[in-house]
Amino acid sequence: MLLELRQVSKQYGMNTKALSDIDFSVKEGEFVSIIGPSGAGKSTLLRCINRMIEASNGEIIFDGANVLGSNKKELKMIRRKIGMIFQHYNLVNRLSVIENVLHGRLGYKSTIAGVLGLYQEEEKEQAVKLLQILGLEDQIYKRADQLSGGQKQRVGIARALIQSPKMLLCDEPIASLDPNASKIIMDHLRSISTKMGITILINLHQVEVALKYSDRIIGVNQGRVVYNGSPDDLTEEQIHNIYGSEVGELILDLGGKHAG
Ligand SMILES: Nc1ncnc2c1ncn2[C@@H]1O[C@H](COP(=O)(O)OP(=O)(O)O)[C@@H](O)[C@H]1O
Ligand SMILES: [Mg+2]
Hints:
The chain is an alpha/beta fold and 260 residues long. The chain has helices spanning 42-49, 72-80, 97-102, 111-116, 121-133, 149-161, 179-196, 207-213, 236-243, 247-259; strands at residues 3-12, 16-26, 31-35, 57-62, 65-66, 82-85, 167-171, 199-204, 216-221, 224-229. The strands form two sheets. Strands 6-7-8-3-9-10 form a six-stranded mixed sheet, sandwiched between helices. It binds adenosine-5'-diphosphate (ADP) and magnesium ion.
């Protein structure tokens, strides 16, 4: 197992229990989708894994390391191996595409080298190579804010890959994209998993995307895992359990897709 969560809980303030006793594990190379309605706890869950948010309770083991028990230096080592992809890309708009990608190397540098933007020739070559793989070879020196949403997300993926991660955490990476751009991003993530052997843990709102791309689906409702299994075994009743009152709308979406 690459990742194991045991009894992970997260409470915000006095009243909001965002996660309750989350238990699951992820194998090396697996493509796992986390689905569920808005407010289910998907983002909280993903962010607890690299401690962008501190879990209130439980245990997280990543690549043999105790994440929640790690000190600052140990956490830095763990975070090198975990790339993060965001819904809103989190690029630095005034910097070029390649500079944004190179930011993925900051976890390997001293603060001063990072501030001065000192990168080795190999790191620059690697950045160009990743941009080529992602179909951005013509955008390398453009400012990030001149790109389309789909292109920005591909820069985000290149920035994560240049870390040489073992796992990518993707928090609704296609939620701001049109269907064409979404398909390009999902196809890239799938091939990163299959061809590079990088583990993918991805939050998705849309069940039909999760069904198409995942090795396994974890359904979350009100901070609890209510489904953990193969996409093939996900029944309509289980979709109901995961989405609760949102389900009518989702089933209609699915019907439309299949009819078209
Ligand atoms: N920083 C925060 N402070 C207080 N409550 C929060 C915070 N972030 C999220 N929540 C609450 O925790 C629950 C889970 O939120 P979130 O993890 O964002 O769900 P999802 O990503 O599935 O939409 C929601 O009830 C949300 O309002
Ligand atoms: Mg979210």
